[in-house]
Every structure is written in structure tokens, then in C-alpha cells.
Amino acid sequence: MGTFADRYFANDPAQLKLARTLYQGAAQLPLVCPHGHVDPHLFADTDYHFGNPVELMILPDHYVLRVLHSHGVDYADLGIPEVGKPAPQRDPRGVWQIFADHFYLYAATPTGIWIQNELTDVFGIAEPLNGRNAQAVYTAVQQALSGADFTPRKLYNRFNITVLSTTDGASDDLALHRQIKASGWEGHILPTFRADTIVNIDAAAWVGEVEKLGSASHIQIGSYAQFIQAVESRRAWFVENGATATDLAVVEAITADVPAAEMERLFQKGLARSITAAETNRFISGMLMELARMSSEDGLVMQLHVGSLRNHDRALFEKYGPDLGADFPITVEFTRALQPLLNRYGNHPNFHLILFTLDEATYSRELAPLASYYPAVKLGPPWWFHDNLNGMQRFFEQAVDSGGLFNTVGFNDDTRAFLSIPARHDVWRRAGANWLAGLTLRGVVEENTAEMMMKALSCGLALQAYKLEEYAPKEARLA
């Protein structure tokens, strides 16, 4: 029987022993964080300190909020401000008590695993959180957050992070990134070009985002051609400031060769706020082709997150805004949808496309076969609802079986919660070690091959796929 140190491993003695060995061989490898949503301000301020436990672990985390909502907890009781209104006065200890009273709801969920590991490994609190010890835990966490060694820069080193990429709007001036670099600090914080606000032409804020894009690029945008010129200019600025990737979330992955004249007409309808749903989809399908073309020219890795229907609860969205947990997976299709894009760029030596999905059925049916053929395509790790032990096991079984581990990008933690990063990587590495131990015992791979695969899935694949190898020690790289 294993111990807490052997958590998530199989109980079979032979598999447990081998999983432990594989994990221990990778546990000291640095964390590679090539895609996430941590605010760069944390690292720009040399003496930044986190706020209280509620601001850190509850309010920004849609994983936490959606579960509380499902059991009748009102967003107002958590102190979440309504759209257009000032933030309400809230007692953070009272909000923490609500969370602790309901913490049993997260049992066996990834959120529960991450938070408990965070409390144990980052804050040194071994006792499981509950309503009875809520205030004592709050006090201990708050005291730690106020400590001199609890700044993001020091934690970056403590967590053994070698590189971390943020997600930044297309019009961001990247001043915080330049400030970090100019400070002389040895940490590596890189920007990522996020294109959602300029691609989603039907969004209420789109016209304003186009105006900001024009201002940032010093291009007066009145036409589609000028819009494209401005996007290219901003991408070049991101490359100059260290970016290696872009990111875009779309509901469906439909791509098409849309004539420039038609894109111009759609662009003008967007400016006039008269574009239809069908025209919106057509514009986005054309923009995906344009963004792929740009990536083939400037070398930025193209990330595509597909299959989330966001802001499903309209009443919640109208009252409180986005990103509060009301997002849900839908069925998607890739083979036909991506054919126009891959016919043009799938074999291009300078094009790299990383695909993420919430539709697990596509792993073995479409995504792994596409990645096992097109040189440009790689699979991102289990995303969002599937970023958990069972989701990882399903991913290994479905995607790797059809496409091979080396047609994936390993792991990225995809989180806003900086302090949860070590826990997320630990779950992935333990799940990977357990899977590889099982393969080895069944004679599918040899033990030395399993060791090589363990290093790859821990950090080597992510370094290679995101073009970050210069930021990591030699022992972390694939070759």
C-alpha cells in the first residue's frame, strides 16, 4: 500500500513501485508554463504581495464559483460586483467561511485536489479545510501571504518555474513585460498574443477593440486591409517583446478561403453593427485562415481552443458579466472544418498549430489522426473540464494510442491562479508516471523508453512545441 507521497498511483505493488521511480526521476525537472492567464503585474512589481485568501483563491476562479452556484450560493454573498456597479463591501472572512462550509463539494474534483495541495504544499497546512477550521486556516494563509518570502518572484524560483507565458490583449502595450525585463530579474515572463477580441466581430465591444488596435498600431483602420495590417503590426510587436505563441478561442473550428472582397464587406458590416450570425461565422472562418497565414510568416505558434459555449446563463452574464462559470462543452468537428486551413498550411515548415478541445470524442476519431499526419499539428493537453486525473488517463488512452505522445505538446497549466501551478503540474506528472508504469509492466514500452517519455511529457514536449528551449536547462529538453 502506498503513502500520501504516492497519491494518484495504482495500488498494484509492481505498478506503484515503477510509477514512483518514474515520478521521482521527473519531479525535479523545471515547470514549463507556456500558456496561462497569470497577470504580468505580479512580476513587474518587485515587492508585490497577494491580497487576502478570498481574492486569491475564490473570486477569480470560475472552477470554484460554478460549484458553489450549483448548490445555491448567491454570487452577491461572495461579494462579486454587478456590471456597472461598484464592488460591494464584503467581509473576506465571511466569504471564506461560506467556501469552507461547502469545501466538501469539491471532493474528488480537480479543484479540490489543486486547492488542498496548494494549502498543504505551498502554505504548509496539512489539515483538510472545513467549516470548523475555516478561520484558523484563513489566518494562517493570510500570515503567509504577508511574509517577505511570499512575493511572486520568490515563489517563481521556489516552484522551479523556468518560463511562464501570460495571455495579453492584441492592443496591449506590453509595458509590464518590458518593465520585468528591464529590472534585471532572471525569471522569464513572456507575452502571448490573444486574438479573441478582434476576431469575434459580433461582440458588443468589437468596434471599440478595433479602435484600440488602430491606436496601438498607429494605423487608422477603415478597411479590412488596414485591419489586417494593424494585426500584423501588433504581432510583430509581440515577437519583439519575446512572444512565441498566439491564442484564440472559437466555438467551432470552421475554416475557409474567403475572398478579400467578401471579408471587406463583412468587416464593414461589423463596423456598422449590422452583421448576422451566419456572416459572423463566415468572417471568423476567414480570419482563422489569415491568422494561420500570419503564423506561417512570423513563426508564432497558433493555439486554437475549440468547443466551449460561453456565458450560457444569460441572466448571470447580464447581471455579473463573463467568466463566472457558466460555460459548457459542445460537440465539434475538426476533419472537414480544418481541411481548408491544413490543405494550405498543414505541411508548411514554419507553421505550428496546437489544438485544444472540450469534445473528448474527437481525440481518437479526428485529432490524433490529424496530428499523426500533418507536421504542423500538435495536440494540447486535456483542457478545462478534462484537466483532471480521469481526463488525463482518457487522453493518454485515446490520443496517444492513435497519434503518439510526440504529437502532443505535453502539459500547460492554463490557469489564472499562480499558486496552483505546482499542484497542476504535479497531478499531470503523477498521472503520466502511473500510465507509463502500466504500459511498461504490460510490455508495451521498455523501462528506458518510459523514462524518456516521462521527461518528454513533463517538460520537453512543451519546450519544443512552444519554441522555449532557450529558457530551460539542457536536462529539461528533448535532445
Protein model, in words:
The protein is α/β, with parallel strands linked by helices and 479 residues long. It has 2 domains: 4-47 and 151-476, TIM Barrel (Alpha-Beta Barrel), CATH 3.20.20; 49-150, uronate isomerase, domain 2, chain A, CATH 1.10.2020.10. The protein contains 20 helices and 11 strands. The chain has helices at residues 13-26, 41-44, 53-57, 62-70, 92-101, 110-122, 134-145, 152-158, 175-182, 196-199, 206-217, 224-240, 260-271, 277-298, 314-320, 339-345, 362-371, 389-403, 421-441, 447-465, and strands spanning 31-33, 161-165, 168-169, 189-190, 193-194, 245-250, 301-306, 308-309, 328-329, 353-357, 377-379. The protein starts with 12 loop residues before the first helix and ends in a 14-residue tail after the last helix. The relative contact order is 0.14.
Topology at a glance:
Layout: H1 13-26, E1 31-33, H2 41-44, H3 53-57, H4 62-70, H5 92-101, H6 110-122, H7 134-145, H8 152-158, E2 161-165, E3 168-169, H9 175-182, E4 189-190, E5 193-194, H10 196-199, H11 206-217, H12 224-240, E6 245-250, H13 260-271, H14 277-298, E7 301-306, E8 308-309, H15 314-320, E9 328-329, H16 339-345, E10 353-357, H17 362-371, E11 377-379, H18 389-403, H19 421-441, H20 447-465
Parallel strand pairs: 1-2, 2-4, 3-5, 5-6, 6-7, 7-10, 10-11
Antiparallel strand pairs: 8-9
Helix pairs in contact: 1-19, 1-20, 6-19, 11-12, 13-14, 17-18, 18-19, 19-20
